[in-house]
Design goal:
alpha/beta; Rossmann fold; Aminopeptidase; 3 domains; 8-stranded mixed beta sheet; 7-stranded parallel beta sheet; 15 helices; 31% helix; 23% strand; globular
């Protein structure tokens, strides 16, 4: 059994974001068969529940080298995941004596790292931002396509039929698990000043005192929420911070009135506002009840603007990031040594996919065997990119785009249809089966189905090798329980 160790912390001042994104990945690795433990400071357990994993206690006053040596006494690991602003290459290098690979999660791009993989899920982040801080061989996973969200968010996005939207009828207020600046009270007073007739779900962590929060018949308090996706799915607007909860909201197409509660949130907040997925309420030091009330009055009177924000937000993050990270940590390596991985489709992939669709024999068993025209293909591609209940990922063979895997919600159903296309030059290598296995990691929370022509023997064999069950002469099925729930 492979072993992973996570180094992160949570506190009232630091917040809980580092911890929750690490725990999301930790649970996904555990579901995939890894043994996982967590190395944390003394305050962390009081902020976030750690009951799922063994805890390696970290001293608060040790040097980077002393801390690395102390944590290493818990045993050698195959993967060390570090998500900590106070740790850099000095700590990571010192851990190399007992960690075979190092995976860094960061969102600052302000210090050197000694790592094999790096994740920065910030919107607009580029490889150039880390060029001076990581070795060229480091495998960088950049942008919200890799956001570490709990499976409930992707499941709600792809499978849930939400309420019909119109106007501002329900607001979610969530200022982080610890709300260190006590902004929730200020926000609720601002909502009362606006006089908007709507329900308000107020979400806080257990570390946030709630006795002094203003009361109103329309205010509904929720503490230590487990099913955050349901509350966000039912809302028309969120008032929230610019941390990792930004990806939860965008995954569900929820417009946000953003408050910057820490300096490291400014980049994300500015970019979400600039693309039209959010409006700015400023930062914690300047936030006023009057600004909150004015913003709500404007949005309440502009349902068209809310609708546009909703559509833009949904394009930012699809919720499948943890699966893509698993694919990068543990790609499938074929007997030939070829490495198979997935990444989210990009605009520049449009021409490649068109070329694959037009290769001889590519569509012979398709529902519509006629290759599309260039204009029809571009129209289809743009529509699929906008569809919140569909997903397109590129199959990478040793880093080279070699095919496409696709997820689509079955109309009026609670499962997803799968399809795979492998470029002619990469067929008969096992790429299709590997791609299907990786695709299962993206959506372990969903039942997957496929329709395959009876004469398409190579595809039928690929699906069977990937664990799909044949239900009749044309249909195959992979139940979610056969892959865990991550």
């Amino acid at each position: 059994m492979r072993r992973a160790r996570f180094r992160f912390d949570a506190s009232r001042s630091l917040g809980s974001g580092h911890a929750y994104r690490c725990l999301t990945l930790a649970r996904a690795l555990a579901e995939a068969g890894w043994s996982v433990d967590v190395a944390v400071g003394r305050d962390t357990a009081a902020i976030v529940p750690l009951d799922d994993f063994p805890v390696v206690q970290v001293s608060g006053n040790a040097t980077a080298e002393m801390e690395a040596a102390a944590i290493g006494q818990a045993g050698e690991v195959d993967l060390l995941v570090v998500d900590h602003y106070d740790r850099d290459a000095r700590f990571e290098s010192a851990c190399r004596t007992w960690a075979k690979r190092v995976f860094v999660i960061d969102d600052l791009a302000d210090r050197p790292h000694d790592c094999d993989l790096l994740l920065d899920q910030s919107l607009g982040r580029s490889a150039a931002d880390y060029a001076a801080f990581v070795h060229p061989s480091c495998h960088s996973l950049l942008g919200p396509d890799y956001a570490l969200l709990r499976p409930q968010f992707a499941a709600a996005r792809f499978l849930r039929t939400g309420p019909s939207r119109g106007g501002l009828r329900r607001i979610v207020v969530s200022l982080g698990g610890t709300d260190p600046h006590r902004l929730t009270t200020r926000v609720l007073h601002g909502i009362l000043c606006a006089g908007v007739d709507c329900d308000v779900d107020v979400i806080t962590g257990l570390a946030v005192p709630v006795n002094d929060l203003p009361k109103s018949p329309g205010f509904h308090l929720h503490q230590n929420v487990n099913d955050m996706a349901s509350l966000l799915s039912d809302a028309d607007l969120a008032i929230g911070a610019g941390g990792i909860s930004s990806w939860e909201r965008t995954c569900l197409g929820l417009p946000t009135a953003l408050v910057v509660t820490a300096d490291n949130q400014r980049l994300v907040a500015d970019r979400l506002v600039s693309i039209g997925a959010a409006v700015s309420l400023g930062d914690w030091a300047t936030l006023t009840e009057e600004r909150i009330a004015t913003t709500l009055d404007v949005l309440h009177g502009s349902p068209e603007r809310l609708a546009a924000m909703r559509q833009t937000a949904a394009q930012v993050c699809d919720g499948l990031g943890v699966g893509r990270v698993l694919c990068a940590i543990d790609p499938i390596v074929l007997d030939s040594g070829i490495e198979i991985e997935l990444r989210k489709v990009r605009d520049e992939d449009c021409d490649n996919i068109f070329a694959w669709q037009n290769e001889p024999g590519a569509r012979i068993y398709s529902r519509n065997p006629e290759p599309p025209s260039a204009d029809d293909h571009r129209t289809w591609f743009a529509a699929k990119r906008r569809d919140p209940q569909g997903g397109l990922d590129i199959v990478l063979v040793d880093g080279i785009p070699a095919g496409l895997v696709r997820l689509d919600r079955v109309k009026n159903g609670n499962h997803l249809e799968v399809s795979v296309l492998v470029s002619r030059g990469f067929r008969k290598l096992g790429v299709g089966t590997a791609a299907l296995l990786l695709l299962g990691r993206l959506a372990p929370w969903a039942d997957l189905v496929a329709e395959i022509h009876p004469d398409n023997l190579s595809s039928r064999k690929a699906f069977e090798r990937a664990g799909y069950l044949r239900t009749d002469d044309r249909h195959f099925y992979l139940p979610r329980r056969s892959r865990g729930t991550a």
